[in-house]
Amino acid sequence: MTSEFAAAERRRAVGWKARTPTLPEEARAPAPYVRDSTPRGLYSFCLPPAYATWNLLPEARSAALAYFADESIAWHQPTEVGPTNHLLSSQVQCVNALMPMDTDT
Q1: Which residues are CB-contacts of 84 (< 8 A; sequence separation ≥ 6)?
Q2: How many CB atoms lie within 10 A of CB 51?
Q3: Whole-angstrom Cα distance, residue 18 to residue 79?
Q4: 3, 33, 53, 89: which has the fewest C-beta neighbours closer than 10 Å?
Q5: pTM for the whole thing?
Q6: Residue-wise pLDDT tens for the chain (105 aa)?
């Protein structure tokens, strides 16, 4: 059973996915959630697996991908390109919020 909070956040993620200028058009399609390396279902709140790096905001993307690779940090429910494709990933949200501060002087 999905809580009202989770349902509201999924709707918010779907709205962001439809409106944001940071995604290419191909990344807006509903997609399976890659869990345990297996695509499951078809969800509007997931990015197509090939576009999972776009789950990272532009100001965090390249630094986060490099840092995770250099430090051998595992992504939660990774895709073949790196991070999860689920737009409500707490790990991705933390990276998006904190990675830009890593380079602030």
Answers
A1: 34, 52, 55, 75, 76, 77, 78, 91, 92
A2: 19
A3: 22
A4: 3
A5: 0.90
A6: 579 999 999 999 999 999 999 999 999 999 999 999 999 999 999 999 999 999 999 999 999 999 999 999 999 999 999 999 999 999 999 999 999 888 654
